[in-house]
Amino acid sequence: MQNQFGFSANIELPNKDDCNIILYDKYGNQLGRAEKISDTQRKLSVPNWDVNCSDYAIKIFNKQGEELKNIPYKLSFKVENNPDHEKTDLLCVTYSKLRQQYAKNDPDYMNTVNYYNELCKQAEENYKIEVDKLHAAQFEALPDELKYKGNNTVNELLERQCQVEDLTAQEQEYVNIYGNLSDIQKAEAGYRLKRNISEKFSQELAEEGVNNEDIEGTDIAIDSCGQVAVSPNLSSSVKDTVVNKLQDFKDDLYRCYIAMADSLRSLPPFIYQYALEVQETKRFLYKATRGKTELTDLYFKNNGDIGGLPPELDKFINKTTDNMRADELRELFSHVISNINEFGKDNIPEFKASFTIKNRKFDVIDAGISDNVNNIISQLNEYASHSIFSKLYNYQFHKVF
After folding, report:
1. What is the C-alpha separation between 338 and 300, in angstroms, rounded?
2. Helix (H, G, I), strand (E, B), or coil: what is residue 299?
3. Which terminus of the chain has fewer CB atoms gathered within 10 Å of its CB, N or C?
4. Tens-digit pLDDT profile for the chain (401 aa)?
């Protein structure tokens, strides 16, 4: 959504849970907390500092600091006055002008591009200033007992959290204000992996007669179809028990991996999303068809339906109406097929979620991603070099979604 007009978002929650909502931009910067309107309603004011940031995320968490997921909520928007609209208006008008000049092959096109780029650089600098001012104001508004007075940086605090160290209330407030969303998600995933998941896995194995000493140093890999493999140094009976038990944990392990593996976190957002959609599609097909239908079997029929599916699945995906799951799968398959058609069957991004068990805890082993990702990046760069956007300035912030 573009924010040159100024707007606010109202979030209606299903119950009276005492929760907080934080807004982030696509670079992971924290942009504000929701104001409590009533027991079930919150209001977020979206900053109108420029028109470049068009994607936002919200994080909902309870008073204990635990993120709340998969809860239904109603989101509505209200356009409001933008007292600083002159700044964003000039960018919009200049952008519209250069597009018209590009279409007409106007000789003055590059002069307009250069002017637009200067405006973007000024807007970028202003954006940094406004984010810093917001964070400083939020910190100063905290009660003194919640102001962090330590010497650790935000990254150091998050690394401590990732290593299963509980942060103090002051440290948590500091992280909430100054932390980047991607780094926060990595730390929270590490905490969940090494404490909650590891402890539960260890307890359930112990109930089946497998001790921590039996699995110390075990390597685990979950492939793109969701199949689990463990290192061969286990006895056959222990190995079978471990593999069977991992079936109950592999989805949680996978979610932690994609939040923690730097080889994935550093990918451009488009390729990161493509890689995750490939994983989700392959996992679904393997489970739904018992491995009989491959990702590359899928195609678009002449009428736009998804082809290559067995009859029952074809009926569910293509003919079912008013079913959220069918709609989600149809959209997922369409994205993947379109990308395969665009980049080729030899350039499907693949990765394994890999772990080792060390000191009774799961630890991520970053196994990287398939080399063909570089081919996709090259194709995207080639497309961009011939587009109207090739000469336009882009903010230097790293996008996290």
Report:
1. 9
2. strand
3. N
4. 445 566 788 888 777 667 788 999 999 999 999 888 888 888 888 887 877 777 888 888 876 667 777 777 788 888 777 666 666 788 889 999 999 999 999 999 999 999 999 999 999 999 999 999 999 999 999 999 999 999 999 999 999 999 999 999 999 999 999 999 999 999 999 999 999 999 999 999 999 999 999 999 999 999 999 999 998 788 888 999 999 999 999 999 999 999 999 999 999 999 999 999 999 999 999 999 999 999 999 999 999 999 999 999 999 999 999 999 999 999 999 999 999 999 999 999 999 999 999 999 999 999 999 999 999 999 999 988 888 888 999 888 888 88
Q: Which two tokens stand for residue 319?
A: 């003919």
Taken in order 136, 134, 393, 1, is the CA torsion positive or negative?
Answer: positive
SS3 288: helix
CB atoms within 10 A of CB 26: 19
What is the residue-wise DSSP string for 242-265? HHHHHTTTHHHHHHHHHHH-HHHH
Q: What are the C-alpha distances in Å from 210 to residues 178, 201, 306?
A: 43, 11, 45
Angle CA(31)–CA(58)–CA(54) in degrees, nearest 5? Answer: 65
Q: What is the DSSP letter of 388?
A: G
Identify the bridge partners of residue 242 per DSSP, sorted by sequence position.
none
Which has the closest alpha carbon to 47: 89, 88, 86, 7? 7
